[in-house]
UniProtKB/TrEMBL annotation:
<keyword id="KW-0119">Carbohydrate metabolism</keyword>
<dbReference type="GO" id="GO:0005829">
    <property type="term" value="C:cytosol"/>
</dbReference>
<feature type="domain" description="NAD(P)-binding">
    <location>
        <begin position="23"/>
        <end position="98"/>
    </location>
</feature>
<dbReference type="Pfam" id="PF16363">
    <property type="entry name" value="GDP_Man_Dehyd"/>
</dbReference>
<dbReference type="InterPro" id="IPR016040">
    <property type="entry name" value="NAD(P)-bd_dom"/>
</dbReference>
<comment type="pathway">
    <text>Carbohydrate metabolism; galactose metabolism.</text>
</comment>
<protein>
    <recommendedName>
        <fullName>UDP-glucose 4-epimerase</fullName>
        <ecNumber>5.1.3.2</ecNumber>
    </recommendedName>
</protein>
<dbReference type="GO" id="GO:0006012">
    <property type="term" value="P:galactose metabolic process"/>
</dbReference>
<keyword id="KW-0299">Galactose metabolism</keyword>
<dbReference type="InterPro" id="IPR036291">
    <property type="entry name" value="NAD(P)-bd_dom_sf"/>
</dbReference>
<dbReference type="GO" id="GO:0003978">
    <property type="term" value="F:UDP-glucose 4-epimerase activity"/>
</dbReference>
């Protein structure tokens, strides 16, 4: 017998989120940090590139604390500038992103 639709949808959602990786540019900023926390809570692996021009590392400490130790492990931070080819190569050479 086929599983009920809700179970199938739940499995599909779990597969999508546990395997998907998102790169958030400016993720230490106001909008970015809130977005990152929500993505972590939804089960995504999150990488951030931010040059901290208009943010502080403590913002990410706060995100990690709010996410909790287990989900905080799914967060990677790259200190870098989006305008730098070298910085972008570091971000994209170490991981594949879905979004
Ligand atoms: N209510 C509040 O407490 C509050 C606080 C801050 C901002 N805001 C509002 O939020 C809006 C802005 O939020 P936001 O998240 O768009 O901006 P933001 O400045 O908070 O975030 C942008 C992030 O991008 C980073 N960044 C900028 N240029 C970069 C580059 N070249 N390479 C890598 N990183 C770079 C910055 O360091 C910053 O962390 C504004 O409307 C502002 O008024 C509200």
């Amino acid at each position: 017998m086929a599983p009920p639709p809700s179970s199938s949808a739940s499995t599909e959602r779990e597969t999508m989120t546990t395997r998907r990786s998102v790169l958030v540019t400016g993720g230490a900023g106001f909008i970015g940090s809130h977005t990152v926390l929500q993505l972590l809570r939804e089960g995504f692996h999150v990488s951030i590139i931010d040059n901290l021009d208009n943010s502080v590392p403590e913002a990410l400490d706060r995100v990690r604390a709010l996410a909790g130790p287990a989900l905080a492990q799914n967060l990677r931070f790259f200190l870098g500038d989006l305008r730098s080819k070298e910085d972008l190569e570091k971000v994209f050479s170490s991981k594949r992103y879905d979004a």
